[in-house]
């Protein structure tokens, strides 16, 4: 009878070590892909991120609403002017930061989901390693029992 400890050899997938070393995806990785890793790319990413952080607040939306209100007197000259004021000044100025706020909230939720998925995958991987170890122990025990049975049969 065959020795079961040599029936299966576990070979870990090469991605496992890469995943361990890299960890979950980070915003800095995305920044480098968009703007590059040089000093100009880092500078552009920092400026863009800083402006987005400032404009993407409800306080900025309130400030833009106040600024847009100053255009109301010219908007009251007629229906065309009013529609132009609402669409080109008020809505554009106020909705921009509100949309960024919503995107920031969605992005944070997405990051949380990605990290949870990463942690779940890491846990499943560790469970699979435990299953492999358990199966190897079972194979060794079955081989030992088979050897004893063979010895009895001789």
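^ structure tokens above, recovered residues below v
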């Amino acid at each position: 009878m065959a020795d079961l400890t040599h029936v299966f050899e576990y070979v870990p997938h090469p991605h496992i070590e890469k995943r361990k070393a890299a960890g979950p995806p980070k915003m800095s990785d995305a920044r480098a892909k968009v703007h590059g890793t040089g000093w100009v790319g880092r500078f552009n990413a920092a400026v863009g991120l800083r402006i987005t952080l400032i404009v993407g607040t409800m306080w900025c939306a309130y400030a833009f609403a106040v600024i847009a209100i100053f255009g109301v007197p010219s908007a009251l000259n007629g229906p065309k002017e009013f529609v132009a004021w609402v669409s080109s000044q008020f809505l554009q100025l106020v909705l921009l930061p509100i949309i960024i706020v919503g995107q920031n909230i969605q992005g944070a939720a997405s990051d949380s989901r990605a990290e949870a998925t990463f942690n779940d995958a890491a846990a499943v991987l560790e469970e699979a390693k435990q299953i492999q170890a358990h199966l190897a122990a079972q194979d060794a025990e079955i081989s030992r029992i088979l050897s004893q049975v063979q010895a009895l049969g001789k």
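Helices lie at 15-22, 27-35, 39-55, 58-69, 72-75, 79-153.
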